[in-house]
Design goal:
The complex is a heterodimer of chains A (225) and B (376). With 225 residues, chain A is of the alpha/beta class. Chain A contains eight helices and seven strands, in the order E-H-E-H-H-E-E-H-E-H-E-E-H-H-H. In chain A, helix 1 packs across helix 6 and helix 2 packs across helix 4. The longest helix of chain A is centred in the first third of the chain and has 19 residues. In chain A, 41% of the residues are buried. About 14% of the residues of chain A have low confidence. Chain B is built from 13 helices and twelve strands. In chain B, strand 6 and strand 7 form a beta hairpin. In chain B, helix 1 crosses helix 2, helix 6 packs parallel to helix 7 and helix 10 packs across helix 12. The longest helix of chain B has 24 residues. Chain B is globular, with a radius of gyration of 20 Å. At the A-B interface, helix 2 and helix 8 of A face helix 5, helix 6, helix 7 and helix 9 of B.
């Protein structure tokens, strides 16, 4: 049995937040899918709301406060990431973007990522494809094919979730199906993370030693290679 | 141990009055600060180099030449000299000339500059920042050490039979520091040549400074210039002082809150906790800065930023009085305690000349970059 880490990044602003609720469901479904494969996964939660001031300060000063640095390290070091944002003005919110702006450039390269988004109406759902997916393409993350959108109406219809847990057949079929499909895709990538060549490279990137430990010898810098 | 001040030379409105000094006032303020630094017993004045508003010091050797003529003891330096966008030939000649006029009181700190448009204005590309710093300094290093240079590189027209004039004072190149905040390549460069490494940590947490200096020290030893604790390290610092710490905080906060670089961001309290900025009484500054060597080891140069963010000149001159009168003498005493005898002071023209003469060698050793693997 292998234990992996799954970082959950939520940019929801209200408390409680439907974005976090969606992210929790995606995480629970992913954990269940990984467990079915005989492995274990530890979920680490990065709630961006708590880091909002630190993110602004980082943008202005160029360095991260200790809590923000810990969050950056959590995400950079995770075997997989669930990233969820509310949709504002047709895209992820500014808090969400700020966090991915301050990650180190290679931090998510090759990392499996599951995207989630929420909004008041299903008319925003393609923001996942035209806004979030290109961002993670730029970051060279390995985004699973199914991204999960939850509009307000998806939470209703009298079939409720229980504390973020998927409640079997009692849950709204549409959203629950999408969650399970996406979680299955993420779990699949997690399960093959050591055998897929692209992900081996990613592991190298993630595990890259301290840049102040391994240095390019000056003779190479002088030669210009 | 050397103590001094370094200035960015920013033209910033005083937030308490809304008044922005003229360029003439700011330039004269910088030179007044330099003279005051010598008067109160500080060792170093270093000026920035910028080629865009709101900064005034575009011509460092002109300013330092003026200061050299009116001082007798002060070391004149830069923070930093743009090794990327300046022609290394002109740096070689300008600073050799300055060194002659200043009687050996000049050293330099190389830096890359992080303002994107400045590079194309000088025909360069910021994406080549590190290769430019590497190649240009390699050429500069030779121009000061070899009378006739034949050279060809990527970024500059080739040189055939070129002699940079005047030759360095007493045949000794000015001592060079390399400044970098976050590029390990520059720490490596400083270590390779056995030059000084300056970490301008004023906007950064000390843990980061510790990693950069640690890398430089390790590689300095690797290249055979001495043990890691003999590497030549400088640090930035930032203070605002009044005899009563509450007065210091009250007076500095409006400047802090809207300061260039960090203004509108973290609170004064957060920033003083996370970075070396110290706002308070002389004793608080002494305690904070006496502790720096526990993070980076015994070091050679401490420069303070005291004249930015629109602080008026009289206030800045007060800061110099506190530094010279109480803080630096106390730090000199504190940092001398248990400092190993084999840890050197920062090299100066005089010390390098004495070293050279003691070696009984009136011809400079060949450029280090010509010896495979550095000096053995």
């Amino acid at each position: 049995m292998t234990t992996r880490t799954l970082a959950l990044v939520s940019a929801g602003l209200s408390q409680p937040s439907s974005t976090r609720l969606l992210a929790d469901r995606l995480a629970a479904a992913t954990v269940a899918a990984v467990n079915r494969g005989g492995d274990d996964v530890v979920v680490e939660i990065v709630e961006l709301r708590e880091l909002a001031h630190d993110l602004t300060n980082h943008l202005l000063t160029g360095f991260a406060s200790p809590p923000l640095q810990a969050a950056k390290d959590t995400v950079a070091g995770a075997d997989a990431v669930i990233a969820a944002s509310p949709i504002f003005s047709g895209s992820y919110n500014g808090l969400f973007k700020s966090f991915f702006d301050v990650l180190e450039p290679e931090a998510l390269a090759g990392t499996p990522v599951l995207l989630g988004a929420t909004a008041g109406t299903a008319r925003h759902s393609l923001a996942l494809e035209h806004a979030l997916r290109p961002l993670f393409a730029y970051l060279r993350a390995l985004v699973v094919p199914t991204a999960v959108f939850a509009a307000s109406e998806d939470w209703g219809a009298g079939r409720q979730v229980d504390g973020g847990q998927v409640d079997g057949g009692q849950v709204d079929g549409g959203l629950a199906d999408r969650i399970d499909r996406a979680a299955g895709e993420l779990a699949g990538l997690l399960g093959t993370a050591t055998s897929t060549p692209a992900l081996v490279d990613a592991a190298d990137v993630d595990d890259e030693a301290d840049p102040f430990g391994d240095v390019i010898p000056f003779e190479r810098l002088l030669r210009g290679d | 141990m050397q103590f001094g001040v370094f200035s960015v030379g920013d033209l910033t409105p005083d937030p308490t009055t809304g008044r922005t000094p003229s360029e003439a006032e700011r330039i004269q303020a910088m030179t007044t600060i330099a003279l005051k630094a010598e008067e109160v017993g500080l060792d170093v004045f270093a000026t920035g180099e910028h080629h865009n508003p709101p900064f005034v010091p575009s011509s460092p050797t002109t300013m330092l030449g003026w200061i050299a003529a009116r001082t007798s003891r002060l070391v004149l330096s830069t923070a930093t000299t743009l090794i990327t966008t300046n022609d290394p030939v002109k740096i070689a000649e300008d600073y050799a000339m300055l060194q002659h006029l200043a009687g050996g009181r000049v050293d330099l700190m190389m830096g890359r500059g992080n303002t994107g448009p400045v590079y194309p204005w000088f025909g360069q590309d910021i994406r080549q920042g590190i290769p430019l710093a590497v190649e240009n300094y390699a050429l500069l290093h030779r121009l000061w050490r070899e009378d006739v240079v034949n050279w060809e590189g990527r970024f500059r027209t080739p040189l055939q039979g070129f002699t940079a004039t005047p030759r360095p004072l007493d045949g000794i190149p000015p001592f060079v520091w390399h400044g970098s905040i976050r590029s390990p390549e520059i720490a490596e460069q400083a270590a390779y040549y056995g030059d000084g490494f300056f970490h301008n940590n004023i906007f950064w947490p000390m843990e980061h400074t510790q990693r950069m200096v640690g890398l430089y020290r390790r590689r300095f030893e690797h290249y055979g210039h001495g043990s890691a604790d003999q590497a030549i390290v400088g640090l930035g610092g930032q203070v605002f002082v009044r005899p009563n710490s509450q007065d210091a905080v009250r007076e500095f906060r409006p400047y802090f809150d809207v300061a260039p670089v960090y203004g509108h961001g973290p609170s004064l309290e957060e920033f003083t906790a996370d970075t070396p900025l110290t706002v308070g009484s002389p004793q608080q500054v002494i305690e904070r800065y006496a502790g720096m060597r526990e993070v980076v080891g015994d070091y050679q140069r401490q420069l303070f930023l005291v004249d930015h963010a629109g602080l008026p000149l009289p206030t800045v001159l007060d800061q110099l009085e506190y530094l010279g009168g109480e803080i630096v003498p106390a730090l000199r005493r504190e940092l001398a305690v248990d400092r190993p005898a084999h840890v050197p002071d920062a090299p100066t023209h005089a010390s390098l000349r004495a070293e050279r003469d003691a070696a009984g060698d009136d011809v400079l050793a060949p450029a280090r970059n010509e010896i495979d693997g550095g000096v053995r």
